[in-house]
């Protein structure tokens, strides 16, 4: 650990007044998260803009952009090493850009896995760790790559779980914690042997702890939808709510390294088909409203912003999480951590879509950047109550508006300023202390423009609508969700929702020519895109009937969402993939999955309807069948089927293959299935 000049630090005006005291700071602590980072002396701010494919360099003293460096496609995150070397993950380019301080060009571009995102530099500066969403060999799992910063070559690549995203180093770099984005969990990696890393723990009991048995004796919270056995009588109380963490975008460490924090969204797991929170829905109620952790009194809907705390003093990070049905810490835990639900202090000012976060250098305050509500929440990192907080029921001290679509934050090392990048309007907000007794923050000066729009004007407007949990056209304060609350990043959340017509998995919208694939919805009940959008926005999200212009803007953005990167796209087929392509036709898969969008847009019954259990497919749906989904990018969209019951592509193909109901598969061998999966992953 390194010792900061805490006496001097506490004497100056930091961003938020706190009773800080002298403490040590771990060499693995980072003062930045997401799309921005600062040079070691805070003189330069580095900003990655995914739309423009650049790293912008800002002189912080002059508040002026002084240069930009062309990096790889869709740069995602940036970090700075101890020697001031800058590293950028190029999510669309399977690479990391390396830029030396003061240079206006890349020093190198290092190949890594598919869709690299999180990155961290070891305290000694010798190793760069890069988190890859998928590997070049498999779309079903990601990996962690270690790069020698001296030679800029990969030392090793360690397979991890599905869609890993963020990384935090622990114990002076001897361990790493990696977040799984859609699963909402953490993998722990042993890095003590520089050449032989090992996965110490593939996950935690986070979601079990968040859904403890009710102390009132009501029993366990419901299991995932596909595992339920006994139907509920119409109008009966469904019992405790249950929630699952999703969208674990990053991991951030407290300065002393004793705790990690993970921004998440909590998604409702128990059925929405019956009463909500023990009452029958009133006419005009929005389906997504009133189902948030802690009950409807907190505001918000069935997707809620959250923050998970992990204690790092055990062998692997241990989740310290509230019981989300009763909304309080368990008896064995002291409430010396933020509430797991981060409720807004104001009913009329939503807080949604956590995208980045950082703990200040005193360790007392945490800054949570919320992309869907365009604000930054400041909250204590080691307590959840106090007279200085904004309101009862919320751990937030202050909620500060910034620009559109913020996705990164960096704090100066003296604690005096914070910089937030607003990705949708390509500007930087500078936050400083007001200087009053309370120590609230305000935004200083005009926002600094970093770049311009590359999307069409319609798509630019559509993106803001798609990601907005504050625009009254799209939602209401009592629901406070956006399209992106379920379609994470315009893709999917891996979640199965308990709708009145049955279990429904969130489908991906990315790169699937969605607006050209009418009819819409799993049951194909909407022939026009506008009808589908209005029904979703008005009846579920609490928004308004959408006019043609709003629908056109949303459609323009949806069609502009890039497809997930694919290591096999535009590459010659391997022998296995070529055999799979032939089997795709032999099994008549192309009868339904045809055309450029790989769907003929018709309804079919492939034998996957849920006909028993708590949540069954409605009779009317079974009668008309389910709409054929596109297979574009299918390798990155697990789990599969409308009810999410197939965890992998192979599991889907093997289950019921003898019936020939989902393709002519009865005569295919297990080896044939492997070849077919290999081909599907190229689509």
Describe what this molecule looks like in 3D.
There is one protein chain. This protein has a domain at 467-680: Cytochrome Bc1 Complex, Chain D, domain 2. It is built from 9 helices and 37 strands. The model is unreliable at 1-13, 17-22, 216-238 and 274-284 (pLDDT under 50). Helix 6 crosses helix 9. The chain starts with a strand and ends with a helix. Strand 14 and strand 15 form a beta hairpin. With 683 residues, the protein is of the alpha+beta class. Strands 3, 29, 30, 31, 32 and 33 form a 6-stranded antiparallel sheet that branches. Helices cover 12% and strands 27% of the residues. The protein is globular.
Give the arrangement of secondary structure elements.
Elements: E1 2-3, H1 6-11, E2 24-25, E3 32-34, E4 36-38, E5 44-49, E6 54-59, E7 64-70, E8 75-80, E9 86-90, E10 95-99, E11 108-111, E12 114-121, E13 127-134, E14 143-148, E15 153-159, E16 164-170, E17 175-180, E18 185-190, E19 198-201, H2 206-210, E20 243-246, E21 252-253, E22 259-268, E23 303-311, E24 318-320, E25 354-359, E26 365-370, E27 375-380, E28 398-401, E29 406-411, E30 417-422, E31 427-433, E32 441-443, E33 448-449, H3 457-466, E34 496-499, E35 502-505, H4 529-540, H5 548-560, H6 575-586, E36 603-604, H7 619-624, E37 626-627, H8 649-654, H9 670-680
Antiparallel strand pairs: 1-2, 3-29, 4-5, 5-6, 6-7, 8-9, 9-10, 10-11, 12-13, 13-14, 14-15, 16-17, 17-18, 18-19, 20-22, 21-22, 22-23, 23-24, 25-26, 26-27, 27-28, 29-30, 30-31, 31-32, 31-33, 34-35, 36-37
């Amino acid at each position: 650990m390194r010792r900061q000049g805490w006496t001097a630090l506490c004497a100056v005006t930091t961003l938020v007044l706190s009773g800080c005291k002298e403490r040590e700071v771990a060499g693995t602590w980072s003062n930045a998260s997401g799309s921005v980072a600062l040079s070691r002396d805070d003189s330069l701010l580095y900003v990655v803009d995914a739309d423009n494919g650049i790293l912008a360099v800002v002189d912080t003293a002059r508040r002026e952009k002084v240069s930009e460096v062309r990096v790889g496609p869709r740069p995602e995150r940036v970090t700075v090493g101890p020697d001031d070397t800058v590293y950028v993950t190029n999510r669309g380019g399977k690479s990391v850009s390396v830029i030396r301080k003061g240079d206006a060009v890349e020093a190198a571009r290092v190949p890594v896995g598919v869709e690299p995102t999180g990155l961290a530099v070891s305290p000694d500066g010798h190793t760069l760790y890069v988190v890859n969403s998928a590997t070049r060999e498999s779309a079903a799992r990601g990996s962690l790559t270690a790069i020698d910063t001296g030679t800029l070559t990969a030392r090793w690549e360690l397979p991890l779980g599905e869609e890993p995203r963020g990384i935090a180093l622990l114990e002076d770099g001897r361990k790493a914690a990696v977040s799984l984005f859609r699963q909402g969990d953490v993998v722990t990696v042993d890095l003590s042997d520089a050449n032989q890393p090992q996965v110490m723990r593939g996950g935690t009991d986070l979601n079990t702890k968040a859904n403890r048995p009710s102390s009132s004796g009501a029993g366990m919270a419901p299991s995932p939808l596909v595992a339920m056995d006994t139907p509920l009588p119409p109008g009966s109380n469904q019992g405790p709510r249950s929630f699952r963490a999703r969208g674990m975008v990053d991991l951030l460490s407290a300065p002393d390294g004793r705790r990690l924090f993970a921004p998440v969204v909590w998604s409702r797991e128990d059925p929405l088909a019956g009463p909500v929170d023990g009452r029958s829905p009133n006419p005009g109620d929005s389906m997504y409203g009133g189902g948030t952790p802690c009950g409807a009194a907190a505001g918000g809907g069935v997707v809620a912003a959250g923050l998970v705390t992990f204690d790092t003093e055990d062998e692997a990070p241990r989740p310290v999480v509230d019981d989300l049905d009763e909304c309080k810490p368990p008896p064995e835990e002291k409430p010396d951590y933020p509430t797991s639900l981060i409720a807004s202090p104001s009913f009329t000012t939503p807080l949604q879509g956590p995208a980045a976060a950082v703990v200040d250098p005193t360790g007392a305050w945490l800054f949570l950047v919320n992309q869907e509500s365009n604000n930054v929440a400041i909250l204590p990192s080691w307590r959840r109550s106090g007279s200085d907080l904004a309101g009862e029921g919320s751990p937030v001290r202050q909620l500060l508006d910034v620009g559109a679509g913020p996705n990164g934050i960096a704090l100066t090392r003296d604690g005096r300023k914070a910089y937030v990048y607003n990705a949708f309007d390509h500007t930087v907000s500078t936050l400083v202390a007001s200087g009053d007794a309370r120590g609230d923050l305000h935004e200083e000066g005009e926002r600094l423009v970093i770049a311009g729009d590359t999307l069409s004007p319609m798509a630019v407007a559509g993106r803001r609508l798609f990601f907005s949990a504050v625009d009254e056209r799209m939602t209401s304060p009592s629901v406070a969700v956006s399209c992106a609350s379920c379609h994470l990043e315009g893709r999917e959340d891996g979640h199965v929702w308990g709708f009145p017509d049955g279990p429904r998995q969130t489908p991906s919208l990315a790169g699937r020519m969605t607006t050209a694939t009418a009819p819409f919805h799993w049951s194909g009940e909407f022939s026009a895109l506008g009808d589908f959008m209005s029904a979703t926005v008005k009846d579920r999200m609490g928004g308004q009937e959408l006019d043609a212009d709003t629908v056109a803007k949303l459609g323009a953005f949806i069609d502009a969402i890039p497809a997930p990167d694919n290591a096999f796209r535009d590459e010659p087929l391997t022998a296995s993939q070529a055999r799979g392509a032939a089997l795709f036709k032999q099994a008549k898969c192309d009868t339904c999955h045809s055309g450029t969008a790989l769907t003929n847009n018709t309804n079919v019954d492939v034998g996957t309807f849920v006909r028993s259990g708590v949540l069954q497919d409605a009779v009317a749906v079974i009668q008309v069948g389910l709409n054929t989904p596109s297979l574009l990018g299918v390798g990155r969209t697990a789990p599969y089927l409308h009810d999410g019951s197939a965890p992998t592509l192979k599991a889907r193909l093997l289950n019921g293959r003898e019936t020939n109901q989902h393709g002519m598969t009865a005569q295919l061998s297990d080896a044939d299935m492997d070849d077919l999966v290999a081909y599907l992953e190229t689509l």
